[in-house]
Specification:
The chain is of the alpha+beta class. The protein has four domains: 2-20 and 474-502; 27-153 and 398-463, 3-Layer(aba) Sandwich (Glutaredoxin), CATH 3.40.30.10; 170-174 and 287-369, Ferric Hydroxamate Uptake Protein, Chain A, domain 1 (Beta Complex); 178-283, no CATH class. It contains ten helices and 30 strands. The chain has helices at 2-18, 69-83, 86-90, 106-116, 127-136, 143-148, 178-189, 288-298, 450-463, 479-502; strands spanning 27-28, 37-40, 46-49, 56-62, 92-98, 122-123, 139-141, 159-163, 169-173, 193-196, 199-203, 206-207, 216-222, 227-230, 245-250, 267-272, 278-283, 303-308, 311-317, 320-321, 330-336, 341-344, 357-362, 387-390, 397-400, 404-407, 410-416, 422-424, 429-433, 439-444. The longest helix is centred in the C-terminal third of the chain and has 24 residues, at 479-502.
Length: 503
């Protein structure tokens, strides 16, 4: 009996050794389940987490005023969603939760999700409703950081500082993507635009057909080859500061008919119409209007400008509208590098040519109270070389790189993260939860690869036997390896038999 019993035991051990260990590429967690909760989605409807969610759940934390990490994160999650098969997608729920409820109303989240082409629920609520949810996910929300940070700023690039009617201040870098370039050109030329899902589907009433016999195709001017080339990305992903000359044409027309752009212009957009005629709109210099619109709208804010004899007059920023009686009004300031102070602009935003740092504030604001533009982040002594400084005076703090956070009681230092608490401001956190709502994998920041994140989702789907996956005896090893291991087990069993027989 002893000799017979050792063979199955050896084989069992071999098979157990062959069973795949979980190998998530993100940070594996061992946490209890989060509680169910109800928030409001971008359509203004109640969404109950744990009831409306199904299968594996991907939870991201974002805020719409942040145009650096959060848009990249959302786009990456959209790419993950696109990578999943139809069966996998049925068993995966994507949810985004705001960390900036004061600004992220359902309307703001709807605009953000539509602009980003993200169809999943984006949830908001009051700060009181959200705080216990952030706590459950070990998310530390630093509102002061969020209020002051909206864009990873590079010194020398144009920025907009905003002081609102509640005396909140924030700084925003000028953004200029393919959509911005097209929209500015359309406004200047008087074109009407019809867009959907990050695509232009109609210009001046010329609409691409439902059968996709042709579509509006985006082309970019290659300064090296001096030729027009079809864009490999959508218009929202085109850096129009790096590639400033764009062209739209029907996909079934001749690209060689597109004229060469004037490369001395700051930006240009060419449209080739159905009759092969072309129209070119040039922006010779960026103005305070371009900088203001690009920065503020890029930060997820809505603006209203009235166009009169004096050019564009800013009347509303983020639903804060100057009253008809002019009790107060939005005032434009320009940063004086010499005196290191904000000066009232003596020209309108259209006449303020190629500004570097500008500011908007109600006219009753003391200019000395407007925060100075952020510091040069190239100095390795700043934030321990792992971030950059923002703000001034008592409000000065570091915006730490992904994977770094403030030192203990020191907001002017950046040290490696050593806990499972995540400061949300410059960086953020995304979780993958199992169907029991247990946070299983965590990914910080936005620098992760889509294929790696997707692999973790599939790993969990397979573990839970969802998405069309079925548990197999030895699912993760090639047949040859399995066979070799089993043969080795038989050999080992034979040796043990011989030893017992000799005994």
């Amino acid at each position: 009996m002893q000799k017979i019993g050792k063979v199955p035991l050896t084989l069992l051990l071999a098979v157990l050794l062959l069973a795949p260990a979980s190998a998530y590429m993100g940070k594996q967690l061992a946490r209890g389940p989060v509680d169910s909760f109800t928030l409001t989605d971008q359509s203004g409807e109640n969404y109950t987490f744990g009831i409306d969610t199904e299968g594996v759940v991907v939870v991201s934390f974002i805020f719409t005023r942040c145009p650096d990490v959060c848009p990249v994160l959302t786009q990456s999650l959209s790419a993950v969603e696109a990578e999943l098969t139809e069966n996998e997608r049925k068993d995966v729920t994507f949810v985004s939760i705001t960390v900036d409820p004061e600004y992220d109303t359902p309307e703001a989240l709807k605009e953000y999700s539509e602009r980003m082409g993200a169809s999943w629920p984006h949830l908001t609520g009051t700060a009181e409703e959200l705080q216990p949810i952030w706590d459950m996910f070990a998310v530390v929300v630093e509102q002061s950081v969020i209020d002051m940070h909206v864009m990873d700023y590079q010194p020398g690039e144009a920025s907009v500082t905003l002081v609102d009617t509640k005396n909140n201040n924030s700084q925003h870098m000028f953004q200029y993507d393919g959509w911005d370039a097209t929209a500015f050109a359309a406004e200047q030329a008087g074109w009407s635009l019809n867009s959907s899902g990050g695509m232009i589907i109609g210009i001046n009433g010329t609409e691409s057909p439902d059968d996709w016999a042709w579509w509006w195709e985006l082309n970019l001017w290659n300064t090296t080859s001096e030729a027009w080339e079809v864009s490999g990305v959508g218009m929202n992903d085109v850096d129009a500061l790096d590639i400033p000359h764009l062209a739209w044409m029907r996909s079934d027309t001749n690209r060689s008919l597109l004229p060469q752009p004037n490369v001395d212009m700051a930006s240009s957009v060419t449209v080739q119409w159905s009759n092969n005629s072309t129209e070119v709109v040039n922006i010779e210099q960026f103005t305070g209007y371009h900088i203001s619109q690009g920065a503020l709208i890029g930060a997820g804010m809505n603006t209203t400008n009235e166009l009169g004899s004096w050019g564009h007059l800013m009347t509303d920023i983020n639903n804060q509208t100057s009253p008809p009686d002019w009790e107060w009004y939005w005032t434009l300031y320009a940063w004086n590098e010499t005196s290191e102070a904000w000066n009232y602009s003596n020209v309108g935003q259209d006449e303020l040519l190629e500004p570097t740092h500008i500011a908007w504030a109600p006219n009753y604001t003391d200019p000395s109270a407007i925060p100075a533009p952020i510091s040069d982040a190239s100095d390795e002594t700043v934030c321990n070389g792992h971030g950059w400084e923002m703000g001034s005076g008592a409000s000065k703090h570091c915006m730490c790189d992904s994977g770094y956070t403030w030192g203990e009681d020191d907001k002017l230092s950046c040290v490696p993260e050593t806990t499972e608490e995540y400061n949300v401001g410059h960086s953020t956190i995304t979780y993958i939860l199992n169907p029991d709502l247990e946070p299983t994998v965590a990914w910080t920041g936005d620098a992760w690869r889509v294929e790696d994140f997707t692999a973790d989702v599939r790993e969990l789907l397979e573990k839970e036997q969802l998405g069309g996956y079925e548990a197999g005896l030895i699912p993760a090893l090639p047949f040859a390896m399995t066979l070799s291991a089993l043969l080795a087990a038989f050999a080992l069993a034979g040796v043990r038999h011989t030893r017992v027989d000799n005994e």
